[in-house]
Amino acid sequence: MKAVQFDLSIPRYAFSKAMGKVNSSFYVESPFSCLKLREVDKPALPNGEWAEIEVKYGGICGSDLNLIYLNDSPATSPFVSFPFTVGHEMTGSISAVGDKVTDLSVGERVVIDPILSCEARGMSPQCYECAQGNYNLCQHMNNGSISPGLLTGTCKDTGGSWGKYIVAHKSQIIKLPENVNDLNGVLAEPFACALHAVLRNIPKPGDTVFVIGAGVIGICVIAAIRALDIPCKIITLAKHPFQAELAELYGTDQAVILSHKKDYIAEAAKSLEADILHPVFGEPIVHGGADIVYECVGNKKSLHDSLRFARKGGKVVLIGLAGFIDNLDMTMIWLNELEVKGTFAYGMDELNGEKKRTLQIAVDLMQSGKADLSLLVSHRFPIDNYREALSTAGNKKKGKTMKVVFEH
User: pLDDT for 74-121, tens place per residue?
Assistant: First the structure.
């Protein structure tokens, strides 16, 4: 089968890192790129507790782009095994099952929780975090019966959704109800990321929430808050007008401020009922602000804004993937006693007194009609056109791009 793989070598990495700064096409199109479209064998079932899945849609995530453009921190490299087929967002159907898989049948439509934690790795007893349901914080992502990998799409043994077949442990697999279509299925994973961020940092009734970024994750945060019926005010900072329109469609309140406007700081402060103060030099600061800021972009400007627009004693939730950030002014963290919370993927979360896998909560909300994210799939490409797909995913304004998926 054909698959897009990432295969790291120091010479390729160094060449792509240097030349990519001149022209970003070197990250994808150069013979020395770490990214390759290859003919590969289907991944084998590691043992009888695993199933094979034929992928229908494989999503391109912002974290995938971060990887391809070599923005990831080397700190994650011990939890990756090369070469790996990229892609952790997917929907598909069971195509084979191991002899210890009793509750899944060939042909059933499914999504997967991509985290490769203790249970998938055959670790017993499970680590402390997995025993608590925090699979995303598993202490054994580089141990066990399979190769290192934080999640499917970073492990050489499992395959990834940028190929036609993957394998998944039975604990990772969640069935799709009949009334949840495949386009919603491929969005279940990013929706679960947003749900985890919201459920672990839940707004109180009457709070003002500021969502920075109206890409897929930002829209999913808005959709999660509304699906959970949390009575709070949502203000969204969007980069492009088409994103602002989607934010309004999914439930943002009153004002959507376009960050390309020169006066966006003043507009945001007004919506947040905050004051603008001007230091002796440098950018203005905001006095007042949101109770909770969900940062969904992960660059220097968005991180700075997340600290700027939080009220005294407020909370900043970091969902956007950030690596190295130079010269980030941390003053507001201590001056306003901000609580800054990181969030990575998901594990189990509690809703209405019941604790279950966050991905299952996402699917349940879709089944109940509380969330329909299928509108976010803006582009579909065959895997042969992976370069065009990545270019589209990386140029949101030109193509009015939201979620780009590979259609197998």
Answer: 788 899 999 999 999 999 999 999 999 999 999 999 999 999 999 999
Top CATH class of 202-342 equals alpha beta
Low-confidence residues of the chain: pLDDT under 70: 323
d(CA 69, CA 370): 35
2-187+357-407 CATH fold: Quinone Oxidoreductase; Chain A, domain 1 (3.90.180)
Tell me which amino acid residue 43 is. P
Phi, psi (5° rounding) for residue 221?
Answer: -65, -45
Sequence-separated (6 or more) residues with CB below 8 Å from residue 155: 80, 81, 84, 116, 146, 147, 148, 149
Amino acid identity at 87: G
Phi, psi of 5 (to 5 degrees): -115, 155
Q: What DSSP designation does 78 have?
A: G
Q: CATH 3.40.50.720 spans which residues of the chain?
A: 202-342
Contact between 105 and 93 under an 8 Å Cβ cutoff? The reply is no
| Nearest by Cα to 5 from 48, 67, 51 | 67
299 DSSP assignment: S
Instruction: List Cα–Cα distances, 213 to 62, 240, 296, 368, in angstroms.
Output: 12, 10, 5, 27
Alpha-carbon distances of 103 from 4, 53, 173, 204, rounded to whole Å: 31, 15, 10, 39
Beta-bridge partners for 6: 35, 84
Which residue's entry shows tokens 């950018």?
283
Q: Where in the chain is the domain with CATH 3.90.180.10?
A: 2-187+357-407
Which pLDDT tens digit goes with each residue over 219-266?
Answer: 999 999 999 999 999 999 999 999 999 999 999 997 788 877 778 999
* Euclidean distance between CA atoms 111 and 182, whole angstroms: 9
Give the Cα separation of 181 and 168 in Å (integer).
21
pLDDT of residue 122: 97
Q: Given this model, what pLDDT does residue 262 score?
A: 74
Identify the pLDDT of residue 403: 98
User: 């019941």: which residue's tokens?
Assistant: 354
- Cis omega before residue 382 (within 30°)? no
pTM of the model: 0.96
Residue that has been written with the tokens 């439509």 in this structure: 109
Say how many CA atoms lie within 13 Å of 320 toward its Cβ: 26
Nearest to 189 by CA among 152, 242, 225: 152
